[in-house]
Amino acid sequence: QLQLVESGGGLVQPGGSLRLSCAASGFTLDSYAIGWFRQAPGKEREGVSCISSSGGTTNYADSVKGRFAISKDNYRNTVYLQMNILKPDDTGVYYCRVVTYCPYMVATMEAPYGSWGQGTQVTVSS
């Protein structure tokens, strides 16, 4: 069973940073691409970033390019999303999922495996 657990969210002021973690169990991350998604209040869920199974390909939504960085630690079986220069528009619940692959247009990511977890809440506010 593919299980991913998100953590690391919190309340942060605009311009601040957070690092989200996505811990995998029941499988090894080096075999799967992983995507981060977020859902803001009253909005549809959107793709934020992804990383290929090898870690050699990473892609980002235009809204986060240059501010967010995705990485994976195969030893810890964890994917990270480092979020810098956070803005109020980054507020939302963040989820990680196994995706079919890591496309350049992250809005087209497909996550047909498993189900959505609880996510981790990120709130950017002064």
Keywords:
126 residues; mainly beta; 6-stranded mixed beta sheet; 4-stranded antiparallel beta sheet; 45% strand; globular
Molecular structure report:
The chain is mainly beta and 126 residues long. The chain is built from no helices and 10 strands. The strands form 2 sheets. It has a 6-stranded mixed β-sheet, with no helix packed on it. Strands 1-3-8-7 form a 4-stranded antiparallel β-sheet, with no helix packed on it. β4 and β5 form a beta hairpin. The protein is globular, with a radius of gyration of 13 Å.
In short:
The protein is mainly beta. It is built from no helices and 10 strands. The chain has a 6-stranded mixed sheet, with no helix packed on it. Strands 1-3-8-7 form a 4-stranded antiparallel sheet, with no helix packed on it.
List the helices and strands and how they pair.
Elements lengths: L2 E5 L2 E3 L5 E8 L7 E7 L6 E6 L6 E3 L7 E6 L4 E6 L8 E8 L20 E5 L2
Parallel strand pairs: 2-10
Antiparallel strand pairs: 1-3, 3-8, 4-5, 4-9, 5-6, 7-8, 9-10
The helix-strand sequence is EEEEEEEEEE
Number of helices: 0
Shape: globular
Q: What Rg is obtained from the alpha carbons, in whole angstroms?
A: 13 Å
Estimated share of beta-strand residues:
over 45%
Average predicted confidence as pLDDT: 95
Count of β-strands: 10
